[in-house]
Design brief:
Elements lengths: L1 E10 L9 E7 L2 E6 L9 E3 L5 E4 L1 E6 L12 H11 L1 E6 L10 H9 L7 E4 L15 H7 L14 H12 L5 E4 L3 H4 L4 E2 L2 H6 L3 E2 L1 H18 L3 E4 L4 H12 L4 E6 L26 H13 L4 E3 L7 H4 L16 H7 L6 H6 L3 H6 L15 E12 L16 E12 L2 E4 L2
Parallel strand pairs: 1-4, 1-5, 6-7, 7-8, 9-12, 10-11, 12-13, 13-14
Antiparallel strand pairs: 1-2, 2-3, 5-15, 15-16, 16-17
Helix pairs in contact: 2-3, 4-7, 7-8
Length: about 425
Amino acid sequence: MNILIKQARIIDSQSPFNGKVMDILVENGIIKSIKSKISTDKNIKVLEQDNLHVSSGWMDMQANFCDPGFEHKEYLQSGINAAMAGGFTAVALVPSTNPPIHTKAQVQYIKHNTEDALVDVYPIGTISQNQEGKELAEMFDMQQAGAVAFSDDKKSVANAGLLMRALLYSKNFDALVLTHADDKSISTDGQMNEGITSTKLGLKGIPALAEELMVARNIFLAEYCDAPIHIMNVSTQKSVDLIKQAKAKKLKVTASVNAYSLVLDDALLMDFDSNYKVNPPLRTKNDIEALRKALADGTIDCITTDHRPQDIESKDLEFDHASNGMIGLESFFGLLNSNIGKLKLEDIVEAITSKPRKLLKLEKLSISEGIAANMTLFNPSTIWEFDKKSIHSKSANTPFIGTKFTGKVLGVINNNKLHLTK
């Protein structure tokens, strides 16, 4: 595969060409040359567009491809197609499948069935057997088989002793534990954020306290164990404050936020659109502002899509009975870039390139000569409409159909393969 990318602005803090507009020549999957101008021959595919930007390949460290067990919602190849359309060359898959990814055989299933893809797929194994929160899963065996981290996903580990043992055990083989913070004794059967909107709608609210208590507890456990812990799905201002305090104490605490939590607030639920029903729930504008500041100052490390496919039977219901989640890969960049506010494009790119790869101890990427080409091409100024044709996932649970976004993914390059977004 020989490609010449013409006059692209490089957004990559790891590259010596960061911020520069350059030509990039890729030969047989390797970046052969980066210069201000490179001449072409007839055997090279030329990629050229006004305001073309290129960064290292984007990584989502929290997506659900539903396979095995829920292939009617998503399967591995449809998830990969959605990732490519969204600009991602790597995804880490949460283990909420059927059965959950809690043994090395299931990790091997994911690895074997995605090994030839453009998108690098990394399984996350469970913390507990069957995600039941009772006994530790085969964490070491799963890591040896290819699991990059461990999490019970949205099933928050209620048993503090179990999470403590997981943290202590994971230290022995340098593994990262990812935790979702939700005290179910407080959130119970809540449907949305507890606040003015939930009162108006007569829906049972989920207090911010349910998240914040678990964030505080998990930080205490990480401190006691002197072990790294990653807090997923951060959604409240107080959670941000707790994480910031932990980092100030030099604790081994990192965090990520879902893209929708940086943009959407709970007032959007006034029409009872179940596509806005997510976990954690959409919070307030004050929370959104706190999350954006936390991303800008480094308190929050990564942005995730929280891609959660749901079939129509799970979403086209009364709000109380609808399942949580929205698909998020294809709309990710348009959603964030259109609502970027004071955030910098460079901060968004950093949060989906070098930072997640560092957390998961994956190979560093760089747009540099002699390095394997792993890149995302995009135009941050293109205005386009997200429609049904934009969806490559098997499911279509998104509130964004018909929405005009600013910022479009143009293509991805990885593993000596090229995919251009139509």
